[in-house]
Amino acid sequence: MMNWNKLLSTKRYGQDHNDPVLASRSPFHKDQDRIVFSSAFRRLQDKTQVHTLAESDYVRTRLTHSMEVASVGRSLGANAGQVIIDRHLKDSDYSPADFGHIVSAACLAHDIGNPPFGHFGEEIIRYWFKNGANATGRVDGLNHAQICDFEMFEGNAQGFRVLTKLQNWRNSGGLRLTYATLGTFMKYPRTSIVEEPAAGDSGGKKFGVMQSELDAFREIARELELLQRGTDDYWSRHPLTYLVEAADDICYSVVDIEDGYKLGRLNYAETEDLMMRILGSPPKRYAEVEDPTERISYLRAKCIGRLIGEVSDIFKDCESEILAGNFKGDLLHHSRRAKIFDEIYALCQREIYRHPERIQAELSGAEILNTLLDAFYEANLDWENYQADGTPMNPRSSVLMTLFPDGDKQKRSRYDWLLGITDFVSGMTDSFAVRQFREIRGIE
């Protein structure tokens, strides 16, 4: 059974002391601020969420999505915090708002490691490492676990790398967030080589820790006393992670259909019907709203409020099961309305995610990312050969190597410089990736 006194650790990764819990500005509130003011977070404003950025100035980007998820997460966290304090922490200095800040901070960062062009960008990176042009020999010298890190590339694992290594205190704690927030951020607390995740464990569906950050997460898991599953590097989730996942799922389920309607890909009747079924009955003042677009926005707000209440109740009922590491699935799909969310997902797949304009954007994204990966790999390979035996570098490679921080000034292992490539590419905005592509191709 996990212990809330340990799960709420205010110790910061990269520091050797705990921050005091102050009523005016808690360590978890500071975590939110550190994420918001980071360059990695700002870059989310120019990264695809569902719809490509050029389609409309209305629809969500990764930045607006993350802010909305954080807003929902703050409410879920505060609701859960009151329950947890009443049950376990009556004599502590914690307030419900502290739990809201932890969940909100993790929500703000939940997409911070995603590459350009949405989840499709992750698929391209995975494929490039495993089956892309000239893939033979690409991962020579790497062990099995390191190879899996690339061939199963995950934005979630990259996000943990951003938070703990690549931002601010580079290689010395990153943003130096509290262990509580970092643990809550970790949606998939396992490595890429866990062969048989526990049945029904949402935290085992993907991996969230690369070999390069494994020691860091082991330290965090020890501090929080997360439950280890077997002997593998595989743990039960931090209980508050389920609230981060629920906040993301709520926003996806409700907001995607609102965006789909406003882009003309879903009609009014089907959008209204889905939202009404989530609510169960029309809101009291619904008839007073006349404009169809405003009606859908009004229903979206009411749906989110209803789902926050329902998910909070589910967490309250399942808290002991979650603390024991025995909870199965995710919170939202324990809802009485679970079938509706499956319908929404199927509808979005059919009418939004597979829309011709999105498919065309993905084709362009594939060409851009493959070109960048090929060019940066060739440059780093030239540098590796030059370091090994003095083989003269291609002048183009010499120029490209100047783009990497200290990339042309030190000898690095194959694993490290491949990480440098994925760090650089996944950190790009959509627009910057397009610009780099054009410059590499010599397109004015």
Describe this structure in words.
The chain has a domain at 251-354: putative deoxyguanosinetriphosphate triphosphohydrolase fold (Orthogonal Bundle). Helices cover 58% and strands 0% of the residues. The protein has 18 helices and no strands. Helix 4 crosses helix 13, helix 5 (96-109) packs across helix 11 (241-262) and helix 12 (268-279) runs parallel beside helix 13 (292-323). With 444 residues, the protein is mainly alpha-helical. The chain has helices spanning 4-7, 27-36, 39-42, 62-88, 96-109, 118-131, 144-151, 155-166, 179-185, 214-224, 241-262, 268-279, 292-323, 338-353, 356-389, 395-401, 414-426, 430-441. The protein is globular and about 75 Å long. The mean pLDDT is 91.
Overview features:
single chain; 444 residues; mainly alpha; putative deoxyguanosinetriphosphate triphosphohydrolase fold
What would you say the CATH architecture of the domain at 251-354 is? Orthogonal Bundle
Radius of gyration: 23 Å
Give the proportion of residues in helices. 55-70%
CATH class of the domain at 251-354: Mainly Alpha
Main beta sheet strand tally, sense and closure: none
User: Overall pLDDT, averaged?
Assistant: 91
Q: What is the N-to-C succession of helices and strands?
A: HHHHHHHHHHHHHHHHHH
Q: What fraction strand?
A: under 5%
In CATH, what is the homologous superfamily of the domain at 251-354? putative deoxyguanosinetriphosphate triphosphohydrolase like domain
Poorly predicted tracts of residues:
none
* Quaternary assembly: single chain
Q: How many beta strands in the DSSP annotation? A: 0
CATH fold description of the domain at 251-354: putative deoxyguanosinetriphosphate triphosphohydrolase fold
Amino- and carboxy-terminal Cα gap:
60 Å
**Backbone structural class:** mainly alpha
